Amino acid sequence: MYTRDVHFTVRLARDEADLQAAQRLRYDVFVSELGGDGPLVDHEAKLERDRFDPHFDHLLLSDDSRGGAIVGVYRVLRDDQADKAGQFYSEDEYDLSVLKRSGRRIMELGRSCLAEGYRGGAAMYHLWNGLARYVAEHDIEILFGVASFHGTDPAKLAQPLSLLHHRHLAPEALRVRTVAEHYQPLDLVPADQIDRRAAMLQVPALIKAYLRLGGFVGDGAFIDETFNTTDVCLVMDTGRLNARQKAIYSKGADL
Question: Does domain 74-249 have CATH number 3.40.50?
Answer without folding.
Answer: no
